[in-house]
Every structure is written in C-alpha cells, then in structure tokens.
Design a protein that fits this description.
The chain is an alpha+beta fold. 25% of the residues lie in helices and 38% in strands. The termini are close together.
C-alpha cells in the first residue's frame, strides 16, 4: 500500500473566506502515485471546514448569508457563552459544525473520482492567522 501525508498551510487575511484546495489535492494525488484508493482532506482547526460543492461565486455568497443567519458574528459575551471565556469566535465554531470537518474522496485511475461539478474547498470562519489542512492519501 502507498501512502502520502501532507499538511497544507493557509494564511487567510479575512475573518471568513472560501479557498479552493482542489488543484493542490489533485497535485498531491498525482505525487502519491496512488491509482486506486482514497484521499482524506480535513481542517486541523475547530473554526474551519473542508467541504465539496460547486465552484460558483453565487453559491459561495449564499453560504455566507445562510451561515450568518444561523450563527451571526457577535464578539460580545451576551449572545454566546463561549465568548465569555475571552474568545470572540463562538459563531465560527457553529459554522464549522454545519459545514463539516473533512471530506473523503475516492481515487480511481490515479484521479479524484468526483461528480461533474464537485470541487474541494476550505472554509475559514476565524482567519487572520496561520492554519493547517491535512491531506492523507492511501491506496495502491
């Protein structure tokens, strides 16, 4: 069995942003030499997410609006108990819970086995500092 483990480091200057990981994951799959297997891509921080969906700016905007309605940003301790600890990112934890921690994608014939519009993204909910994404590839 072949394996490849890499950490991608991201510096997102905004509090929230969607960043494509797709080409980098494709590159790592090719580097691994795995023809048949799986790739795990997961955010290594509890205020960020990895997800798969359409690479379309209108949808990304809709995510922002929808998530902000579900868990609005409010740095004050009055809305979120978590912010009473000195943090200001309770909303980021909740947004991550909705969008998920990781994705697992099949590798077939040395390529990501995805639907026609599927694309891999990192979603930062509490940026402005360096964060990691783990990419773990396993297979033959």
């Amino acid at each position: 069995m072949k394996t490849l483990t890499k950490e991608l480091w991201l510096d997102v200057p905004q509090r929230r942003a969607i960043v494509s990981l797709h080409r980098e994951v494709e590159r790592l799959v090719a580097e691994s030499g795995v023809q048949d297997g799986i790739v795990l891509v997961n955010a290594m921080h509890i205020t960020a997410s990895v997800f798969i969906n359409d690479n379309e700016s209108g949808l990304h905007h809709d995510y922002e609006v929808w998530l902000e309605k579900l868990a609005p940003f409010d740095a004050s301790p009055s809305r979120y108990h978590h912010n009473r600890t000195g943090e200001d990112n309770a909303d980021a934890h909740m947004k991550r819970q909705v969008m998920g921690r990781e994705v697992v994608v099949a590798i077939t014939d040395g390529k990501l086995h995805l639907g026609p519009w599927e694309h891999i993204f990192y979603y930062e909910f509490d940026g402005r500092r360096r964060k990691r994404v783990l990419v773990k590839i396993l297979g033959e």
